[in-house]
Amino acid sequence: MNDIAAELNVDTTVYKALLESTKAIPWKIDWETLRFSYIGPQIESLLGWSQHSWASIDDWIERMHPEDRDRVVNFCVAQSKAGVDHEADYRALKADGSYVWIRDVVHVVRNDAGEVEALIGFMFDISERKKSEEKLLRLQRELEELSYQDGLTGVANRRLLDSSLEAEWASARRNGHPLSFIMLDIDCFKQYNDHYGHLAGDDCLRRIAHILGSSILRPRDLLARFGGEEFALVLPETDREAARGVAERCRAAISDAAIPHRASDISHLVTVSMGVATATPVSGTPASLIEQADRRLYRAKQAGRDRIVTE
Known about the structure:
Blueprint: H1 2-8, H2 12-20, E1 25-30, E2 35-39, H3 42-47, H4 57-62, H5 66-81, E3 86-93, E4 99-110, E5 116-125, H6 127-147, H7 158-175, E6 179-186, H8 189-196, H9 198-215, E7 222-227, E8 230-236, H10 240-257, E9 272-279, H11 287-302, E10 308-309
Parallel strand pairs: 9-10
Antiparallel strand pairs: 1-2, 1-5, 3-4, 4-5, 6-8, 6-9, 7-8
Helix pairs in contact: 8-9, 9-10
């Protein structure tokens, strides 16, 4: 204790009163012996271990969460040897077996020859701060997920579609695999909204999205709302015939759902038109795949709707 006071050139009694009246836990380690020459009595109220049980650096190491131990010890030893002040966050073991988050702020003390003589520092309980940080990170992840999600149907939105298609295009080009893209349009959807109302139209979009999502069998395939009543499917490592099979499965599932559409020009049930495009990229951009699928979707609609065009 006197050594710390001397280091800071203050009266020992005043210094001790100041240190032991704070929630921060002061400590000092002799570098040559790696033993504690002092640790504040607050350590017992925080962790449950008595002040006198902190004899050496081994006690500090052993009372650290195993998952944090190597990272923190290696970092602190390296920084201390280099004579660099530092700080580290880790989970400290309490006497009751639970853990609290600690931040150790460390100052390296050198002698007149410039050699490391001691480490002095403070331990801070940052458990509440960590809880707040984790809550903030969780909220950020939720917001990020929402930013890639269509608000009405819950499937991927155009932003995620574009980024995923870009990544799959690059992967297909690198590996020489086919990539397929399906553009789907709900037939006569304006008439559906006019006849049943926009709330019913929104419900119809949600039902179609659910049906399409249930028709996708592989985790890597992506369903997205392209815009309005249009949906898109990205199918990595899928050739034309396999993509047509996916399209047929989606179309059949929508037909089986038998969603009434009395205002349709072609059926008394909701139907869809699809354009399917497949490429094994060697150059260009994924925009060409979208344009090709869109042209085939247009041809499907021009040919009477309720059909799939693949070439």
